[in-house]
Amino acid sequence: MSNTPLYQGQSIQVDKLENGFAELRFDRQGDVINKFDARTVAELGEAGAALAKDGSIKGLLVTSAKDVFIVGADITEFGASFQRPEEEIAAWTFESNKVFSAIEDLPFPSVTVINGIALGGGFEMALSTDYRVMSATAQVGLPEAKLGLFPGFGGTVRLPRLIGADNAIEWIAGGEQQKPAAALKVHAVDAVVAPDKLKDAAIKLLQQAVDGKYDWKARRAQKTGKLQLNAIEAMMVFSTSKAFIAGQAGKNYPAPLAAVSAIEKAAGKTRDDALKIEGQAFAKVAKTPQADALIGLFLNDQLIKKKGKGYVKAGKKVQHAAVLGAGIMGGGISYQSAVKGVPVIMKDIADKALDLGMEEANKLLSKQVERKKLTPEKAGHILSTIRSTLNYGDFQTVDMVVEAVVENPKIKKSVLAEVESQVRSGTIIASNTSSISIDELATAMKHPENFLGMHFFNPVHRMPLVEVIYGEKTSKEAIATTAAYAAAMGKTPIVVKNCPGFLVNRILFPYFYGFLGALRDGADFVKIDKVMEGFGWPMGPAYLQDVVGIDTSHHVGDVLAEGYPDRMKNDTGDKTALDVLYEQKRFGQKNGLGFYKYETDPKGKPKKIADPATYELLKPTQKGQVDMSDEEIIDRHMLPMIIETVRCLDDGIVETPTEADMGLIMGIGFPPFRGGALKYADTIGMQTILDKCARYAQLGKLYEPTESMKKMAAEGKLYFPK
């Protein structure tokens, strides 16, 4: 079939095919993917004009020359454009939408061939044609809500008219990627076929539309007309979904609710008026601090991944690993390595511990089978790549050893020296420690250049972060190889310079000290938890310490008090709330009593209950009872955390603000919609932070801003410039 070029751009080409059809092909030059940036939108306008002008075309195929269809909008470009005034953003969306509407209004039927991922603007492009044929291996969706936005290229207008308001709200508010079966079920696509039959199926469908077997004009009228809902149906759909979304998203994520309101407001309008409503509502959410933070988070994630790829290139590939110390943590690390294709030897000195480690790995694999993520055969094969042993027999074959024995420097040093004598030269040895100095542990090693820290977070299979901690003598190759191994395990490595507490715990504990200070001054721990959860934390500080373990928290606190005595040591001689609970052996969730007491719910999960006994135990540590304001509670927790994050940056513990903030989001669940401690500081303003610090100066060094913070305020600088 010979093609005649009709339009040639850098992202889009249009060819006339022999059968009277035209093919509009997305093929972004110099890139492996297609995405919508300003240039592509402009080219789509030009291509649409060329198609409208040619009177000989009978039908249009929209295709992609890449493995994906279109991954979405170029957020690096559009995110920056959201700094403009609201009216300009609304005008921009409406002008952009004219381009998609022009494709929709062409005087002949159109079919999109969805060969791979079609997300956000990519899926909205597909919605602007009359029909969609989807590959059985593709995925579609509108994930904008995850960036604090909602669709702005007509998604809130076309999708509800196509699949019904209730289905569209679920897709838009949830922001999830949809598989072919789900898309076909709600009629978001018209056919799902095998990848090799995709183009033929699309041409056949287009020919049938041209021949009048399908009423493409009726389909178009459905998408460009009013939403077909009577008043009672509309009330039911919108009021029910608003109540549900408000409960799910909460006040901290306004975009899903704003999307529902836009759909509701535009329900009685035809396409162009509905698009104006979408544009105005889109501009509003684009200007929210949540969108700013979540877009920043997306870009930060890209930067971290890019850095991770650099480590993968620079390091050696780990083909075979070993874990020292079984149990829950060792079993979790072994499972994570094996499930991602790196076989592992799990060694311990006791059969009982090995059984526990294998049990943990087996339990995690069984859950994958239950969720239909793995077949029983595949799970069995993965389990067979974890070999438990009581001796060092095959340690000569491993490239990497992760030591995960008890958090005790003497025991760790002994085990590390022993394993170093059992592995071949050049094997990297990493200690999974949450607080012990890597330089201190390295004194046990003959080759400290091959030694470093690899701090996994619990539970290993869920937590995305791994801190890769280098000591004074750690080689660059050891750092790169360890970071590459973490990435191969499906984790995000952040490289951190050795210091007490490393990055995440060093920043978390000033937050805990802020909490203990608020308790000392008479605040109620239940109210504190409620306020901090309202701020966006997944759990408040009392609940979090119960989950971490009061004993663990007490131990790490001692390490940090020694490391940073000026601000993290309790010099008063008075016991803190944590000291009292620790002495009473109230270790938190693990033994059913901490700040809260725990009972098992019907699903077998621990349920927290406020315990009157806690109040009695804490009375001697408190100056009395006060009803502390929400603002004071937030400030007293967040200011020490912000200041310590700045100190980590100033001390070169991490290289960039991006890594500091991403470490907090992935390591301790910092509220994503606030972007991290440094992004939060940017949002509320450094001068405001300094003013707040002055208000709490009497509380000591924990609330004392750094010189770099004062300099930033004076110069009006940001950690993340707009």
UniProtKB/TrEMBL annotation:
GO molecular function terms noted in the UniProt entry: 3-hydroxybutyryl-CoA epimerase activity; delta(3)-delta(2)-enoyl-CoA isomerase activity; enoyl-CoA hydratase activity; long-chain (3S)-3-hydroxyacyl-CoA dehydrogenase (NAD+) activity; NAD+ binding
3-hydroxyacyl-CoA dehydrogenase C-terminal domain span: 501-598
Entry's EC annotation: 4.2.1.17
Catalytic reaction(s) noted: a (3S)-3-hydroxyacyl-CoA + NAD(+) = a 3-oxoacyl-CoA + NADH + H(+)
Keywords associated with the record: Fatty acid metabolism, Isomerase, Lipid degradation, Lipid metabolism, Lyase, Multifunctional enzyme, NAD, Oxidoreductase
UniProt record, GO biological process: fatty acid beta-oxidation
GO CC term, one of those recorded: fatty acid beta-oxidation multienzyme complex
Domain 3-hydroxyacyl-CoA dehydrogenase NAD binding: start-end pairs: 321-499
Protein name per the record: enoyl-CoA hydratase
Annotated organism of origin: Solimonas terrae
